[in-house]
Amino acid sequence: MPPITELMMFALALAAAGVVAGVLAGLFGIGGGAILVPVFYQVFGLLGVDDAVRMHLSVGTSLAIIVPTSVRSFLSHYRRGVVDIDLLRNWLVAVPLGAILATVIAAYVSSETLRLIFAVIALAIAFRMIFNRASWRIGADLPNNPVKWLVGVAIGVLSGLMGVGGGVLNNTFMTLYSRPIHQAVATSSGVGVLISIPGLFGYVWAGWGEAGLPPLSTGFINWIAVGLIIPITLLVAPVGVALAHAMGRRQLEAGFGIFMTLIAFRFFYSLYG
């Protein structure tokens, strides 16, 4: 067990990550998992968590934290009247189904595979963040079913495997089909709810009885980390919502894209370095 001073530093690092994750939840309509998963991966490693379960635990714990963060972010956006409720209704089955499929996949793949999936999707997200242009459009409105429904399943699967709320993926989908960015951000907070709740229960099931999990873990959810970070993210998520409706996003998107690039290469290095 590391000395108490090191544990305090880890706790402070988690708390700082919680602040950033909460603001991002409101600002980008994401659950903050893109920040939390790599931080958890590092902290759980320093605490001696078995490599075989470390990435799974990071992803599952991130999704558990996203539940209240996404709910609060969604309610804040909903009160502003900019959420696309029709799209969320259309995805009431599709997105949760994708999230559940992700937990089934996670139950049978290795930590290395899960890290590779995170790194590849993170690079794709980074490309979109850094090079995104308002002129990038595929159509004048969202596609009809079954395409739209299948996109919901895909967002659920990819987000569930990464431990994220699906905000960046849904923002990309909606803006490519000419929806306003503020509507995309607001709707993404609802997508986060549809992903995180089934994802939480799925990762409990996927990790049930696994060896090497740290104390106070239920499956691939560590409740110490959840209890530490949730109050912070709930407190600061409305700050991100206010920022999303009050400022330009280009520099923040580019900065987030650079961060995701660094995280992706960190995971690639852990696999092939």
What are the main properties of this structure?
transmembrane helix; TM_pro_TauE-like; mainly alpha; 273 residues; 11 helices; single chain; transmembrane; two-stranded antiparallel ribbon
The major β-sheet equals: 2 strands, antiparallel
What is the string of helix and strand elements?
HHHHHHHHHEEHH
Low confidence ranges = none
- What general outline do the C-alpha atoms trace? globular
* Count of alpha/pi helices: 11
Average pLDDT score: 86
The number of strands is: 2
Cα-based radius of gyration, to the nearest Å: 17 Å
Order of strands in the sheet with the most strands?
Answer: 1-2
Number of domains: 1
Into which percent range does the helicity of residues fall?
Answer: over 70%
Category by helix and strand content: mainly alpha
Ends apart, CA distance between termini:
27 Å
Strand content: under 5%
